[in-house]
Each structure stands twice: as structure tokens, then as C-alpha cells.
Amino acid sequence: MPSASRYMRFVLAFSMTVALCIPASAQVVATKSYSYFDIRGKSAGELDEELSRRGPTASGSSARHPGATKIRFGGEATYVQSNGRCRISSAKVTVHTQIILPRWRNRNGASKQLSTIWDALSSDIKRHEERHAEIARTQARVMERRILALPAQHSCGAMQELVTEASNRGIEEHDRLQARFDRIEAVNFQSRMMRLLNKRLGSSGR
């Protein structure tokens, strides 16, 4: 199931503290929210058309998707300068994910078969988007570890440059991981949906 994800560059605020001998600390702050778009239909064809017409779009594209995950990274780093060297004192990486899902508004009166198909499809859309959010949270932790491991520099300006480079590489890697996940999911979509439908139809006794 293809999905749209929107990324924003990871920006770190540069600040300096007094020279204190304290261990480096880190914190990943992850938040998640949900929003919905309404669709209507009394047949599989109508629902598919509504998803194509009302679904969210990705940045830089007019294509509609059955679901989406918007991802925003941010953060800040604090530096300590001592004995002519500057090092990371603390780092905080933030990642907010907004999962956008479809909501079938006029389900009442639909056939049991169509409801079963929708339940299988909507659960797969949600699983897919939750995985996008999980990938973002995991990458935020990776970025945090890499920033804390950066070697001390001769100045805090040079330290800031290293932090910026590390965060940019982390975002690029994150984008590649998300794109790879979408490619794999698209290839396996048909077989995955058939398994879900067979399972749901089997449990309902049809």
C-alpha cells in the first residue's frame, strides 16, 4: 500500500553553557496524533474512487493516497567549552508524527461482504502508517546516539557544524528507509490483502 510521508529538516539550536564537568545526556521526545478524512460509498468501486479523490497528498505531488504519515523532526543541542575544546553536553531530538486515516461515514446499510473488505483494507492502511511512525521514532534515537558520539572540537562553531552534518545525514537515511518500506509494501500488497480477506471471511463463517 503506497503512502505519503512529508519530512522537514532537522534543525538544532546552538547554545553554549559554562564549562562544567557533567556527563552528556540525551532525550528523544516523540509525539503522535491522528486525523481523519471522510469517504462515502456503497460499493468497492465507490470507496476506491473516494480514496483516490479525497485521500491526502504527498509534498510536491498531486497524487492521492489512502493514508499518510506527516513527520516533523526537530531538536536542540547544548555545548560545553573547556580547556580549549568544545563538546556536546546534551542533545534533545524531537519527532512528531501525524497519521492521517480514512473514515467510512455511511457504512450503515452496506453489505456484510463490503464491510469485511473495508475492515481488512482500513486495518492494513493503519498498520502501514503506524510503521512509518515507528521508523521515524527509531531514526530519531539513532540520530541522538550519533550526535552524542561526536568528538570534541576546537570551537563550538565547529561542533555545531558537525551536529548539523550528522542530523542532515540522519534525515537522508530516514528518507531512504521510508522509501524502501513503501516499495516493499507496494510489491506485497495484493498477497497481503488476500491473506487478510481470507482470514476475516474465514472467521465470519463465510
Automatic annotation (TrEMBL):
GO function terms (MF aspect): peptidase activity
Stretches the record annotates as Disordered: 48-67
Annotated keywords: Hydrolase, Protease, Signal
Signal sequence extent: 1-26
A single BP term in Gene Ontology: proteolysis
Annotated TM spans: none
InterPro entries: DUF922
Residue ranges the record marks as coiled coil: none
Pfam name, any one: DUF922
Name of this chain's protein: Putative secreted Zn-dependent protease
